[in-house]
Hints:
Elements lengths: L6 E5 L4 E3 L5 E4 L29 E4 L4 E5 L3 E7 L2 E5 L17 E6 L5 H4 L2 H6 L3 E5 L12 H6 L29 E3 L4 E4 L2 E7 L8 E7 L2 E5 L28 E2 L2 E2 L10 H13 L4 E3 L9 H20 L4 H4 L18 E6 L5 E6 H5 L7 E4 L3 E5 L4 E5 L5 H10 L5 E7 L4 H4 L2 H7 L5 E4 H7 L20 E3 L4 E4 L2 E7 L8 E7 L2 E5 L4 E2 L2 E2 L15 H12 L3 E3 L11 H21 L6 H4 L4 E4 L2 E4 L4 E2 L2 E6 L6 E4 L25 E3 L4 E4 L1
Parallel strand pairs: 7-8, 8-9, 9-10, 14-17, 22-23, 23-24, 24-25, 29-32
Antiparallel strand pairs: 1-36, 2-35, 2-38, 3-34, 4-5, 5-6, 6-7, 11-12, 12-13, 13-14, 15-16, 18-19, 20-21, 21-22, 26-27, 27-28, 28-29, 30-31, 33-36, 37-39
Helix pairs in contact: 4-5, 5-13, 12-13
Amino acid sequence: xxxxPATESALALALVxxxxxxxxxxxxxxxxxxxxxxxxxxxxxDGYPDGRPAGPILTKITEHLWxxxxxxxVGILRDGQRAxxxxxxxxxxxxxxxxxxxxxxxxxxxxxxxxxxACGAYDLAAAGAKIGVxxxxxxxxxxxxSERVFFEKPAGCFDRRWVNWSYHPDYLLLTEPLxxxxxxxxxxxxxxxxxxxxxxxxxGHTNGSMSYEVSVDGRRVIFSGDCIYDEGQIWELYGMTxxxxxxxxxxxxxxxxxxxxxxxxxxxxELLESLARIKDAKPEILVPSHGRIMNASAKAxxxxxxxxxxxxxxxxxxxxxxDMFPDxxxxxxxxxxxxxxxxxxxxxxxxxxxxCEAPLADTRRKPAPPCxxxxxxxxxxxxxxDGAAFVVDCGKGMExxxxxxxxxxxxxxxxxxxxxxxxxxxxxxxxEFRKLFPACPILADGHVAExxxxxxxxxxxxxxxxxxxxxxxxxxxxxxWQWHEFKLTxxxxxxxxxxxxxxxxxxxxLRIFFSGDSxxxxxxxxxxxxxRNWLGQGxxxxxxxxxxxxxxxxxxxxxxxxxxxxxxxxxxxxxxxxLAEREKLFAELLPWDNPNYGLDGWWVMCRPYAQQAKPGGExxxxxxxxxxxxxxxxxxxxxxxxxxxxCGRPEPEKMGSxxxxxxxxxxxxxxxxx
Length: 674
């Protein structure tokens, strides 16, 4: 695989949005990822961007059952001149029903609430189609709403704009309410025309996903949503970021609160149970929402389970969560040589569990030199011989510690503040810090500065704070300067997040590296795909580890721990080898030509995301697309105006109401090479 670093391009749509007279905050619509480049060519409703003719495929399954392969696979169950659809995509399927003798859509069953499944439903419902959705509650989290809520009252879900630790429901929601006529629970069965339909709960891709078993004309067919793409493949993995344990499904894992933010692939248990449920139903044909129609469904599922487990193990092998959640020892074989060592001695007990002694995370740790002091929740202080201080990161309340140190004579003055990354716990003290030290310059890498100086322009990145932070000096990768006896060098350091910097301080034999939240003594902090952790040589964590190998620091610093640590050369080599192998394995699991499309939760985004406008004013935004492929790709984008709404902060009692629509002026499809 070519490992050329990804590039971003702005699709210059210049969408002009006229705000109704009431005025409001406008949120740009979420962009829906297109089909993967590795998939067989499928025409768009308006034709291929390269000029090939339009014509999504109609596939006959039985006399009464067909599949329309457009942006998604839509099931078409016929009964005379009427039809029942399973999902509807952008609604273009309606234009092909006449070929089957269908004149009316009686009902639409949805596998899940995502916009790519349902954005065309409004017109179909207005024409008389009844809407059926999954109705099961999500058992893992008390009071978590069913999928029905995300169809009928999506507005409240968009209110999770700032300091977001949760991505369920994610932002691929409908933007306007859709009236629901029926909600189906697991096991519920009914007859429609010549077919018997049974609902199968298949959570994983979303918390309430439902598959539908259709028995008609002597065939058993399951429409499985997005829990499988093809034999051994799944559509994407960022939707599998879940709270709770990936092993036993408990929300409190090892006595610790397990956030969705830390849960890459933690929907594992749900997914495996859902796939087993489909396999036990013994379908002759399996139809995913995204992907290929499968005949050998059992083989396809077994291959997916095997690949998923292999990828999950490779991810765990270097994850810092094994140090944060000690209960991992009850499920993970720590004697494996391909895992980053966690303990000096591991004994397998007769009950299959591990008895672990001498944690290596502790032996990797070392005392801090006198020039270093950890203060506040996430800050490090570098002190010069004459008492000047240079601070790294600024969590809330940190300024109080600085004031106390000055009063005690520990430091004489504060001469600089470096921000490692944009997360709220690293910048939410800047406002008070600036009041106390108004002349102190704030520094950050350019990737970090782009986010923190204009937070409203960005979509809901994890832990993004609403207040922007001023940056007085934007540093470039490899830029050095002298600060007292220390040589400081700034680096682009895309570890925990793509928008991250690293700082190296050198003096004499000391070489101290401030890694922000990219490492702790237990391994890599790559547990949230919405942080945009990229795989590939020279990208993401591989770039970070390569830099650490080159710099050979004497001390590595994690923002959340007062104890410096150090990886051995063998540790670094193991982690880089793991990442290279992980890239290959995830490339097999995901159907794209680069696995980062299925791991990067924000590879398509709209910017600026939120803007203020006066009544009658205009708003414009770009669709920003990251090309993870090794070659130039053509990106195509079109606005579906029916699904674009004015999104503000609706009052709770109005969450189910329709908002004023925006007027949008743009071509039907715009293209740009990326």
